[in-house]
Amino acid sequence: MYTSVDELLASARNELTRLDPLEAHARLAAGALIVDIRPAWQRKIDGEIPGSIVVERNHLEWRLHPESGASLPWARPGQEWIVVCTEGYTSSLAASALVSLGLPASDIVGGIHAWRAAGLPVVAGPSAIEQIVES
Fold this sequence. Notes:
The chain is α/β, with parallel strands linked by helices.
């Protein structure tokens, strides 16, 4: 039992190896996939990472677990997932949930705001859910 949201967040982050934007970008080249869990209105405001897969938070575990019966085609055993949100808070909780299911997952410190500040590519959103964001 946690006495605060901060305590819950700290516990979740203890289970993760969080990535800065440049580390996340490098992991993409090695086969990791970014999953964007933000709702459409946030993706419209801040844009999206090209190549990311849009899965809103309430569907995440079912869509990414390869044996859920509702998984997406990219959800295969051993697939590394990097979760992104706006600033890196909700993504930590979501990545922790994936880790608790045995999936290799992490998140981006600072979210899409840090990704953009690092000069990494962002395109206008919102893309349709459960699709890969086009460049």
